[in-house]
Amino acid sequence: MSETISTGSPVQRQKPSTPFYRDLAFQVLVGVALGVLVGALAPSVGHHVQFLGDIFIHLIQMVVGLIIFCTVTHGITSVRDLGKVGRIAVKSLVYFEVVTTIALVIGLVVVNVLRPGAGMHIDPSSLHADAAGTAPAKSEGFDDFLVSLVPTSAVQSFAQGDILQVLVFSVLFACGLASLGERAQPVLDIVGTVQQALFWIIRKVMRIAPAAAFGAIAFTVSRYGLGTLLPLARLVGVFYLIVVLFFVLVLWPVARYAGVSLLKLLRYFRAELVLVLGTSSSESVFPQLTAKLRKLGVDEPVVGLVLPTAYSFNHDGTCLYFAAVSVFLAQATGTDLSWQAQLGLLLVLLLTSKGGAGVSGSAIAVLALTLSATHTIPVSSIALVLGVHSILSAAFVFTNIAGNCVATLVVGKWENAVDRVRLRTELDAGYRAA
Predict the structure, then answer these.
(1) What is the DSSP-derived secondary structure letter of residue 34?
(2) How far apart are CA 394 and CA 89, in angstroms?
(3) What are the chain's domains?
(4) How far is it, in rounded angstroms, from Cα 95 to Cα 107?
(5) Taking the CB of the first residue and of the last residue of the chain, which one, N or C, has fewer CB atoms within 10 A?
(6) Strand ranges (DSSP E) for 338-425?
(7) Radius of gyration (Cα) for the chain, nearest Å?
(8) Is the dihedral of CA 185, 62, 201, 310 positive or negative?
């Protein structure tokens, strides 16, 4: 979904709103409903449409490594003068790590307590979309884990879809590129162009999400019965509870520490938050967020550094999603995840969550490679949640945007780079278009 932003012309006719039947979320819900009907009334047909979900997953896995490389490289290299802004960058990254870790812990704790996937008894061998996902767990020591982070060949890590090695290479490459200063600009432009092309692919792939949801739900219902839908409803309820807890336990006190009311802040950015609820894409509101944070009195260097970096490294809502859905899929497939294994999952998620992009569908892609990195939870089990992904993504993208705005204000406070009078005045009055 796109939005025309006024450029100040005297008269500018707004584009008519998109008919509801062309909205992706509506189409996915229709796909889910049709999948339920076909799976329940014609199970023989439902057994043979799983390939639709498989194709969808494979298309996303095809580009996710490059998306992560471009996102991380562009985010780090855009900082440019690391000597001048290194202090802000370090403070930002420390904040991002602490808050996303708390988000992962909240998600893991709640989903373990409420266990929305318990009792589904999904046979992993029937989910054949990715044979690698059903490989037995490998017993590795911490030293083996550290060694496995470093690729022997960057090309091989991309070819094999090893998300951790791709991340390590991306960070090293970005730091090397940033050290070149202005000479890095041509390469940075190319990376940005490739990134936009990959975003286009993801957006096009998301158009077949309704068919993928239809195939996944039809197969699930035909094989396991209508009883499998109840755990999906429980997952949605549990995830929205996790999001509410994160706002109450984390963002609310952090916003107070930054000297702002979280409710007033959400009201100030309400147009952007409503937009991402419909699009499930945070990239569509980046320019507006930048302008509004500057209008709130945050210095331009802080906004220019913290917000773009947050888009790559501060995915609070996505971390909640990764933690909740990963454990849900383990519960649904009967995969044994001890607390030790979940701590390992948390460490993996701390790395892979940094590769999430602001494009609808990228969370599924990163989740797929995260599960592959664990060598325990079947990657193909992601098909189970395709039907409710759009409902979940609306909540976690909303959380990402709110978290990034709060993060920018916190770092601005640390740098004494916020006009407190202007901030208070703007929040009390609410946003007014110029």
Answers:
(1) H
(2) 29
(3) 20-429 (1.10.3860)
(4) 18
(5) C
(6) none
(7) 22
(8) negative
